[in-house]
Amino acid sequence: MLGRFARSSFKFFAAGQGLSFRTGKYFSESILVGLVTGFVVVGFRYMLEYGRELMLEGLGHHQFLSKLTDGAAFVGLYTNARLLDPHRWLLVVLPAVGALLGYLLIKRFASVEHARGTDSAITAYHQRGGYIPGAVIPIKSVASVLTVASGGSAGYEGPVTLIGAACGSLVASWMNLTVRARRILMAAGLAAGISALFQAPLAGAIFGVEIFYSSSDVEYETLLPSFIASAVSYTVFAYFFGWSPLFVMPPDCVYENGLRLLPYFVLALIVTFGVRFYITFFRAVETWFRDWRRPGWIKVVVGGLATGVIGFFVPDILGTSYSVIQASFTAGESELFENFGPLTIAGFVCFFFMKAIATSFTVGSGGSGGVFAPAIVCGGTLGAAVGLFFARVLPSSFGIIHPASFSLVGMAGFLASAIRIPMTAIVIVAEISGNHSLLLPAMWVCGISFWLNNGWSLYRSQPHCRESSPIH
């Protein structure tokens, strides 16, 4: 009896040691994924800065033509007598040239189905055992820089999601791990990429858990590896680029009056319909280009030219348009915005439509860029417009309505609804702005817009739930 007890105890101890070893194994591998992804994203960021300085700023003089949002963005074209500026005309063709070079690079050196950004990463997780070719890392990096740094209306976050996922897949292949382990490390790399480039480690980790489904279902197996990889990659990235958040918000943007849930409810409704327009138009353009019987290089050139024409009139449409987000955080405060009065509301709304249209042509035609960052910009402009409106019409019982608060919460609601990542959206807007005082309205708007837009998603590859995935 004593012998049987000893043998049982030994088996239990051995099993426990095996479990500990496996847990430790994923822990160490997650650290490795975070290190690899962090250094890759650092190199990617340096390429972005160099590419933008060379093309959009160097050749296009974008910083001199840019007049930021609203009235200034529209009237600046005529009052500044810049219609005949050769650099403004160069902005028409730059996005097409960049998109063409990026397309040819991917066509020559990487399979197109492995280079569609976040959609490719999600597809690899569910249908390819987490396998993404290592060639995607340099090719997608350079192609995305060529597309967006030349003025394409897209973001770097979609490409960096795929790049991070490829880093995780590559580490798993190096170590000859199982398919299950490769999927987990792929998700950890995906999270690490977002964590570093957005400078949002917690949001990046959550992103690696909930991006794989269009419902509220999550891949809980990826949670701890995503936490570890995100922390490491963010630390590596911050060592080179600092620890400050992406945007600076006014310090008085707080939630301190329960009555404000009413205007935030209106914001949730407007964001819901804004997302539906964005997705519907993007899908229509994408379908049109897919059915158009022309070579792929012609499609990206046409898409780039359409974006360039819009950028000719409103240069801030080109690239990521993050300058517009920062401008929305000062809406209603600066002399620039006060001078245009009610036009600022119309300006933000017009910018939303133009950004959605330009992004649809850039990415829908086959350009190498993401729809994540444009979704942030679209949500921020809608939120700023709603905030400016309520700041003018609501009585004093609601307190001081700051449009920047509505802009930030609008960003969260748009992400939650369009990309189906409500938890990530709530956390990411707090981390990229350094403002944690608006979590409650962000939860309110994200919950409503996510629920109302059930069945709508920018990513075709997202299954609805775990039961719909081939791996489960």
Into how many domains do the coordinates divide? 2
Order of helices and strands: HHHHHHHHHHHHHHHHHHH
Q: Rounded to an integer, what's the Rg over CA atoms?
A: 23 Å
How far is the N terminus from the C terminus? 42 Å
> What overall form do the CA principal axes indicate?
globular
CATH topology of the largest domain: Clc chloride channel
Name the CATH class of the largest domain: Mainly Alpha
Strand content: under 5%
Corresponding CATH architecture of the largest domain? Orthogonal Bundle
Mean pLDDT rating: 86
Number of strands: 0
- The tally of helices reads 19
Corresponding CATH superfamily of the largest domain: Clc chloride channel
> How much helix is in the residues?
over 70%
Outline:
With 472 residues, the protein is an all-alpha fold. It has 2 domains: 28-241, Clc chloride channel; 258-460, Clc chloride channel (Orthogonal Bundle). It contains 19 helices and no strands.
In terms of topology, how is this protein built?
Elements: H1 2-59, H2 62-65, H3 70-79, H4 86-109, H5 118-127, H6 136-149, H7 157-174, H8 179-198, H9 201-210, H10 223-241, H11 261-291, H12 296-313, H13 322-328, H14 335-338, H15 343-364, H16 372-393, H17 403-419, H18 422-433, H19 439-452
